[in-house]
Specification:
Aspartate Aminotransferase, domain 2; binds pyridoxal-5'-phosphate; 40% helix; 14 strands; alpha/beta; Aspartate Aminotransferase, domain 1; globular; 4-stranded mixed sheet
Length: 428
C-alpha cells in the first residue's frame, strides 16, 4: 500500500499544525503510525491523497450518516452558498430545522442551535445550573461530552487512547463541582445524590460511544430517570453521537426515557458545524433573550449549515435506513465473531443501530474499567489489517464504527473479507 503523499503531508503538517491534526482523535498515535490524509469522498467510500480507496466506517465520527456527497444535500448547500453565507440575523431555515428537531424529540419544546457538540454541552451545564440554582454535576466515567473544562474528567476515547487522566490546564476549581459515577451502576449515582444536595444535573450518553460502544441496562437507565426526577435533578441526555442514529429522533425514546435537556451535534448538521440543546418550555424560558442565562454565537444557526442539516434529515427520513442499519450491523457482528473464533481470539461485539464496536476481550463490556481491559495491541494489528484491505475505521479501540445508509451488498462483502484477513493477520 502506497502512502507516500500522506507521509509527506504529515511531515509538512507537523511544522504548522499541532501533531499535523486539528483534533487529537485523528492522530494515529495509539495505533503506532501516521495519520492518513484524505482528499475526497463519495457515497460509502473515502479516498486518501495517494489514491487509496476505503469503505468509510468513520464517517467523520458520525455526521455523514447518509454517506458522502448526497446530491440533495449538495444542491441545498450550493443553493444557500449562492444566496449568502452568514447574515448575523435570523433566517427561515433555522425555524424549519428547529421544528424538525423538536418534532423528532418529544422532550424538546424549543431548541437553540450552536456550532459544536461541545458548545451544546457547555450551554446545557449553564442552563441546568441556572434552572435549578444548584452547582454540582454528575458524569459517568468513560462518557465524553466534548472538551469543556467541567466535564473533562474520566472522559473516554480521545483521552483513554492517549492515556491522559484529564487535561493539563483545567484548574481544580473547574472540576470541583463534578462528581464521577460508574456507568451501569445506579448505586454510584444514588451515593452522590444522598451525599450532595447541590446537584443541578446528571449528564449521560444514553448509549455510550466514547469508551467503545457500551449499552446501558434497562434497569439502570430507567432507575436513573426515576431517581433524578424524584430528587429534582435534571437529566441531561447527550445525544451528540446517538441522535438520529438508531431511529429518527433519539436513543432516549428507544430506551423508554425522556431527558430534561437534550444535546445534539454531528448528524444534525449533516457534515457542517452544528450543535443544539433543547428542553421543555419552562427550562428554555431561562435562555437569553427570554431569560437570564446568557449564551450567544456569531455563526450560530449558520445558513449553509442549516441547509445541510435540513436536507440531511429530510433525506434520512425519506430513506428510513434504520432496519437496514440493524441488519448490516448484525452481519458485521457475526463476521467479527466468526473470524475471531476461527483464529482463537477473544472478542466481544457491542452495537446499537448504526454504531458497532469490537472489543478485544472475552467479557461483555458494561463500563469504562472493563473497556480499558481490552487487548489494544490486538486492536492495533487488526486496525492496520483493515486499512490494508480497504476499510477505514477509527484509529482507536475506544471509538465506534459508524454505518451509512448507502452501504451496498458489495461493500458488506468487502468489509467481511477485510475482517477475515485482518483477524487472521493478528496472530502472524
Ligand atoms: C462528539 C461528541 C461530543 C462533542 O462534539 P464536538 O462537536 O466534537 O464538540 C459530545 N458528546 C458526545 C457524546 C460526542 O460523541
Amino acid at each position: 500500500m502506497n502512502t507516500t503523499k500522506s507521509q509527506e503531508l504529515y511531515k509538512e503538517g507537523q511544522k504548522h499544525l499541532v501533531g499535523a491534526v486539528n483534533s487529537p482523535v485523528r492522530a494515529f498515535s495509539s495505533v503506532g503510525g501516521n495519520p492518513l490524509f484524505m482528499e475526497k469522498a463519495s457515497g460509502s467510500k473515502i479516498y486518501d491523497v495517494d489514491g487509496n480507496e476505503y469503505i468509510d466506517l468513520v464517517l467523520s465520527y458520525g455526521p455523514m450518516i447518509i454517506g458522502h456527497g448526497n446530491t440533495k444535500v449538495v444542491d441545498a448547500v450550493q443553493n444557500q452558498v449562492s444566496k449568502g453565507f452568514t447574515f448575523g440575523a435570523s433566517t427561515a431555515n433555522e425555524i424549519k430545522l428547529a421544528k424538525m428537531v423538536c418534532d423528532a424529540f418529544p422532550g424538546m419544546d424549543k431548541v437553540r442551535f450552536v456550532n459544536s457538540g461541545t458548545e451544546a454541552i457547555l450551554s446545557a451545564i449553564r442552563l441546568a445550573r441556572a434552572f435549578t440554582n444548584k452547582n454540582h454535576i454528575v458524569k459517568f466515567a468513560g462518557c465524553y461530552h466534548g472538551h469543556t473544562d467541567a466535564l473533562l474528567v474520566a472522559a473516554g476515547s480521545g483521552l483513554a487512547t492517549l492515556s491522559i487522566p484529564g487535561s493539563a490546564g483545567v484548574p481544580k476549581e473547574a472540576v470541583q463541582n463534578t462528581l464521577i459515577a460508574e456507568y451501569n451502576d445506579i448505586d454510584s449515582v444514588k451515593k452522590h445524590i444522598s451525599e450532595c444536595d447541590d446537584i443541578a444535573a446528571v449528564f449521560i450518553e444514553p448509549v455510550a460511544g466514547n469508551m467503545g460502544v457500551v449499552l446501558p441496562s434497562d434497569a439502570f437507565i430507567k432507575e436513573l430517570r426515576k431517581i433524578t426526577k424524584e430528587a429534582g435533578i435534571l437529566l441531561v441526555i447527550d445525544e451528540v453521537m446517538t441522535g438520529f442514529r438508531s431511529k429518527f429522533g433519539g436513543a432516549q425514546e428507544l430506551l423508554g426515557i425522556e431527558a430534561d435537556i437534550t444535546c445534539l451535534g454531528k448528524v444534525v448538521g449533516g457534515g457542517f458545524p452544528v450543535g443544539a440543546y433543547g428542553a421543555r418550555e419552562e427550562i428554555m424560558q431561562m435562555v437569553s433573550p427570554l431569560g437570564a442565562m446568557y449564551q450567544a454565537g456569531t455563526l450560530s444557526g449558520n445558513p449553509v449549515a442549516m441547509a445541510a442539516g435540513i436536507s440531511t434529515l429530510e433525506e434520512l427520513q425519506a430513506q428510513n435506513p434504520y432496519d437496514k442499519f440493524n441488519e448490516q450491523a448484525a452481519i458485521i457482528e457475526k463476521a467479527l465473531l466468526d473470524a475471531a473464533e476461527e483464529n482463537g481470539i477473544d472478542l466481544t461485539v457491542s452495537r446499537f443501530g448504526s454504531m458497532v464496536n469490537p472489543f478485544f476481550t472475552s467479557k461483555t463490556v458494561t463500563n469504562f474499567t472493563e473497556a480499558q481491559e481490552c487487548d489494544t495491541a490486538k486492536f492495533t494489528k487488526f486496525f492496520w489489517g483493515l486499512i490494508e484491505n480497504g476499510v477505514y475505521i477509527p484509529p482507536s479501540q475506544f471509538e465506534a464504527w459508524f454505518l451509512c445508509s448507502v452501504l451496498s451488498d458489495e461493500d458488506m462483502e468487502k468489509i467481511t473479507n477485510a475482517i477475515n484477513s485482518a483477524m487472521a493477520g493478528i496472530n502472524n
